[in-house]
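From: lab user (bench 3)
To: helpdesk
Subject: output format question, protein + 2-deoxy-2-amino glucitol-6-phosphate

Hello, I'm new to running complex predictions and I'm not sure whether the block I got back is the full result or only part of it. Here's what I submitted:
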Amino acid sequence: MCGIFGCILKDEKAAPVMHAALKRLEYRGYDSVGEATIYSDALYIKKDQGKIDEVHRIHDLDDLPGNIGVGHTRWATHGAPTQVNAHPHLDCNRQIAVVHNGIIDNFAELKSELENRDHIFKSRTDTEIIAHLIEDTLNTNPSLSLADAILETVRRLNGSYAIAVISTREPNKIVCARNESPLVIGINENSIYCASDIPAFLPRTNKVVIVNDGELVTLSLEGFEIRKIADSSTVARESKLIDWTPEMAVKQGYPHFMLKEIHEQPASLRNTLRIQEHYLELMATFPDRAREVFLVACGTSYHACLAGSYAFSKLAFLATYPVIGSEFVEQYGKSVNIDSTILAVSQSGETADTLAAVNIARQRAATILGLTNTIGSTLTRVSRVYLGQQSGPEIGVAATKTFTAQLSVLMQLALRLAKKRGKISQDEMDFLEEKLEKIPDNVETIIKTQEEKVKQIAKKYKDAKTFFFLGRGISTATAYEGRLKLMEIAYVPAIAFPAGESKHGPISLVEPGFPVVFICAKDESHKTLIGNIMEMKARGASTIAIVEEDDEEIKKLVDDYVEVPKGIPEVLSPIPFVVPLQLLAYYMAVERGHNPDMPRNLAKSVTVK
Ligand code: AGP
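Helpdesk reply: Thanks, we reran it on our side. This is the complete output you should expect:
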């Protein structure tokens, strides 16, 4: 997964604009970067392996001539992160430059076909074949326009792609196309942009055109033209104003996007409470009618599904199956059918494993519902009904505000389902809705009053070799999420499991000083959890608890604790209880000298299976 960008500017150099935009896309991949521009009918290119700042120090990414260019920041899939494999990739005659995000499945056979026609390849990437294929098409039929040659080219590509192409043959145009990988256009009177994500050009314009799968767009200073790849027919599409401020795309003074986004949770949670009632009602009708309901997602989004399944059962008396996206096909591919409903949860709306599960279910006529943070994403187009969770852009690779927003939407859905199924009284409904309205304030209080405390706990345990995260009931999902955060950004091996499982094996790992984190929501399992704390203490474990502020019983028992406001209903508890765990992972990463925004080997959303 990479970040692509292109721009045409009336009276400005493209390179500095590309450099800044690629910096804003660096969360999408950061193992190599490159830019290409056109000036007086020649292509100029700079690219190298490494992070943008490192490459800029060596090559000066602001110093290329010309007001038109394409750029790329990479997360390698085909070909190691090297200078020759960095994008843009050129044709044999250095007249065409291509940047690409995605994977071309049939690149090998296309490459040998082109090599048989004497094309010389420099890199080991799948992307380079696109440049040579365009060149070959134009050589075969020189009367073709650049856009038509690219139309013919992309029709031969199998796989996922968002590409942007410039050529000295038509030096005032950028042609871009999309299949599966995200692509958006930004416009204003003196410039036009294409990018993998809106934050790339947000400081310059919030006038956006979403490009759909199977579309090709030709950009020039006169405007943009969208055509369907299948039949070249033109598509009319209005731009829309995105109510994201440029600041949303920059760190607002926080040292990292992750910490900024943890602090943005009260605001993003309030946004979720503004979701249109009729959409929630509409979406709730499907699980109510379905013979079976699968909650499908990956990583952090899967943990939201796990918590959702507890809430659907506890509030609406509806059993649902939380399923990890990459396992759905194996686990339920044969049994899913027309009476099944799939609620797919994905903040990016582009995660390949989740979309693959959705595709299989669609082929078997199941009903697809979507919950996502990215309007215009693939998930929104394959869903019968989808809900946008309105968290704003999440730049940090570690999902934080999008997780708590997913939980809030799933809880609202569970409440409507409970009402629809007559499983909840109006008083209970009003009570829980009132508590849900208070959750953003609860989270604000936790951040204000407990952040410093979490920082001290992170300092205390920064050299720990491993961690346990334990919870009971719906807090099991919170424990899993705490574990994932610590692993993915602080690189601390950690294990999470329902606390009742300790004595069935994992407790054998515990020795004096072994840190164990307990998520202690005030629910029916509270008493039993105290027993689990005693079990671990008896083996010398260092016990850390996330407790309600008035939970003196557990506070007296454990070595360290972090408080959340009291009186939070159990089904809503994962939202406030996960915030201290997000902060713990963040400060552990900082204490251990890691960059929380760019965890190694990871990137924001995984569009490869
Ligand atoms: C979470 O911090 C990770 N970035 C990752 O597990 C993520 O949740 C997963 O890849 C799913 O992404 P999605 O919500 O965009 O589908």
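A quick orientation on your result: The chain has a mean pLDDT of 94. Let us know if anything else is unclear.
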